[in-house]
Predict the structure.
Amino acid sequence: MTARLDVLVVSSWYPAVDAPSAGRFVADQVGALEESGRVSPWVASFDPAPRLGSVRLRRREADALGRIADAGAAAFDPFTPGTAGIPAVPTARLAVAGAMRGSPPAEPVAERTAALRRSLGDRPSPPWRIVHAHTGVPDGAAAAVLAGRLGLPLVITEHASYVGRLLAEPITRRAYLEAVAAARRVIAVSRALAEELRAAVPGIGERLVVIPNVVAVDALAGPPPSGRRSEELVFVGSLRPSKGIGVLLAAVARARAERPGITLRLVGGAPDPATAGRWRSEAARMGIADAVAFEGEADRAGVAAALARASVFVHPSPRETFGVAAAEALAAGLPVVACDSGGVTEILGPEPDRLGALVPAGDAAALAWAIVRTLDRRDTYDPAMLRSSVVERFGAAVVAARIAALYDEVLAEAGAGSPPRPGGARPDISRSGGARPPDAPSGEAAREQRSVGRPPLFVVGLDPDRAAAVLGGLDPDGRARIHLVTAEGAAAMPGGLASVRRIALGDRFDARRRLVDSLGVGHVVPARLARAGLPLARELAWRLPWRERQLVARATAGVESARADLPAGAALVCLDGLDYLGALPAVVAGGLNPAPGGARWLADHLGGPCGTPAEGNA
């Protein structure tokens, strides 16, 4: 029987119920390692709780989250089937406070370090022999502390295109350099990124290696060229300004002057509504609104369908550490027209015309010319050749073999302890968060026993809109275990919940509070504006602290009242920062077992729209 190596993968970038495409490249690597038969990966990802209110209130919310998570560290095995990632791989969704504008640079590192310590750092005999973190900060820095605590070697893979900004900030730079110093190997996903790291990180030396991301080619087989829309362009990725979206729209407007039939499909989400509106306005201003489709974020099947329809993939980003979307397009048989961006430049290789076209970054005229030229010679591209260019370099088996070999080197250097356990010996992980016995039933018998002996779930989701969105996507059978406490509001809760308690929170969602939240500066700016004589700011400056105190008092009383109706041993799940703050007194009073995470943990635990675990993991 083949020996398997247990590896703990630490990554904030990992698909989740509320972000199905986030960190898909990490999940692809995890899946490739699992399929290789040589590695048994376990994933520790993070479950951020959004925070609202003033700076002071948000800090109280983070403190409450930490205290509740500490109190519940022993209540659950944090690993459940990763329904939004790789279902066969145990996944821990660990609660952390959501990012706050203006927070100290070290805060994300501290949050993740504490989450890993409380949930994984005190295991008497951890199964893992290597810790593999993705990104140097915050995850690599946090994983370095855990690896040191467990006496395990650390590997870090860097993907981030903003490493330069991280290293320019003194506190973050210190954390980054300490993480790299603790790592046995640092993997860069492209040669361009490796050169940047080599120049910026002293002493990284021979520990730096280049191993590309995995591209899931099997999910991207497209139809024959005759099934494509002859003049449709497609872009897949975030619609952030840094991705070159403005240049792409300008290029399409220019290209349509020569080929009026050209259309563009953008698959991906904007970082905020204002940015989404900006791109629509730009398209309208350029006279191409009818030719541009904004489709929003899509899952893997949606991306594959978009690639199957189009004729050319366009990648306008001026900076990429790898460029998974471009590689996926090639695997789907699409030529790629791209700006010189580092990672995508390497994917197109020394002869980019064989796979599409490469133009200078930021040059809309050159990009337009390349689009028209590529469409003119579209029939000369061999889909099989485009696909093989990806399979040979970035296929799952190829990359997994390189990473497994690197693990072997690291263990040999470290003289690391016990031999790997026999393959297949990793226990299945049940939705209760623990190990499923080998003789556990499956199929219909498993479904009948799914709720037997499992504690009720006490979900605190005081924002009714968010609670409705989170719970509405869960497995209907699982919702029967949920007792929800939420605020009064118009949002209708999904059916099948065990109970719903509505509490009055006053003007919790008042538009004036939303204005202060958007400023992200607490009471400081409103107070200054008040002295300048602005009436609304004056009202905010004196009302907000009182209203927040009233809000917390009402939330605490409502949660405590709802908890009194629950049987002992209920599992507590909080969705947002205010929920943790309102639930803290009830946890201190006893009778609740806090879950390891929030909305993402709940979706993995019960099953959500990203897929229900296979019956073998039920």
Notes: The CA atoms of residues 134 and 157 lie 5 Å apart. The chain has three domains: 5-214+395-414, 217-387, 443-612. The two ends are 26 Å apart (CA to CA).
